[in-house]
Amino acid sequence: MKTVGIIGANGVVGRTLQAEFKKIKTPFEVKLLGRQDEVPALDAAVFCTDNPDSARLYEQLKDRIGYMVDMSAHFRQDPQVPLVIPEINPHAITANTRLIASPNCTTTGLVMTMAPLRKYYSLTEVFFCSYQAISGGGKKLLEEFHTAGSLYENNCVPLIGSIQENGYSSEELKGIYETRKILELPKIKVYPHTVRVAVENAHSLGVTLKAKEDFDLALVKQAWNNFDNLTYSEDIITPKQANGQETTYACRLRADVEEKNIIHYFITFDNLLKGAAMNARQIIELLLEKYL
Ligand code: 2RA
């Protein structure tokens, strides 16, 4: 039987992944490991770790682990490393792949709604403003949120990650470069703005999307509803409803008041599920079915 490890099994994503692994039908053995533990030889492993730990673990373990799935941002822009959302680009994994990066949670929700439209439209520009849940910041941020006087209490904070030299936050830059890589649209213009809000779990985004062609709203809704793990709702959907759900919800689709080649909509999705652990579970399922 194949053995798959979760390294960083006790973090917020690691714990969610333990529950996700129970949904996998192919039998396999799970090894739960801390980031400092001695790691045995494994057929595959998911690194639920941050950038420095992921870089270190890869160097230490690359000869002992068959396939590695990394949840951090460290390898996402490496041209040799596929950045994979199984509904969108499973083809990026080949027989020679050893290391697979799982994307940023906010980018994941965004591209889940853009990917089904590529078949019908040449997408040229996307603007988004995120409303990101506290759980995206991990255990520490959740603890801080529940401490009296927290900056995040009853508030929204327009900074996620760290401010870079060009004034963007690291989270915003992920939104630009990961969108381009996953969708294989290297020239698409992405205008990101990321904000942390006082919501415990489930990220949301307000999105404006532009194409070369005029949009047909009925076709957009149909394309979304035909895509795996994506649901368009005529009702208002909020993070409270997305919390604990596997599907990414889109709602409030409308045409721009002046330009027919621009649409506006709202997305909400569970950042710990599709934005992290569910995506990792789907990658492991794909590896178990095709490569392991
Ligand atoms: C956040 N996107 O929400 C990040 C999680 N990696 O902070």
Task: Give a verbal description of the structure.
With 292 residues, the chain is of the alpha/beta class. The chain has two domains: 3-103 and 276-290, Rossmann fold (3-Layer(aba) Sandwich); 106-271, Dihydrodipicolinate Reductase, domain 2 (2-Layer Sandwich). Helix content is 29%, strand content 25%. The protein contains eight helices and 13 strands. The strands form three sheets. It has a six-stranded mixed beta sheet. Strands 2-1-3-4-5 form a five-stranded parallel beta sheet, sandwiched between helices. Helix 2 links the parallel strand 3 and strand 4 (65-70). The chain is globular and about 60 Å long. Bound molecules: 3-amino-D-alanine (2RA). Residues 104-106, 132, 136-137, 160, 171 line the site of 3-amino-D-alanine.
Helix and strand topology:
Elements: E1 3-7, H1 12-21, E2 29-33, E3 42-47, H2 51-61, E4 65-70, E5 99-101, H3 105-114, E6 123-131, H4 138-145, E7 156-157, H5 170-183, E8 189-193, E9 196-197, E10 203-211, H6 217-225, E11 230-233, H7 239-242, E12 248-255, E13 262-269, H8 273-290
Parallel strand pairs: 1-2, 1-3, 3-4, 4-5, 6-8, 11-12
Antiparallel strand pairs: 6-10, 7-9, 10-13, 12-13
Helix pairs in contact: 1-8, 3-5
The protein binds 3-amino-D-alanine.
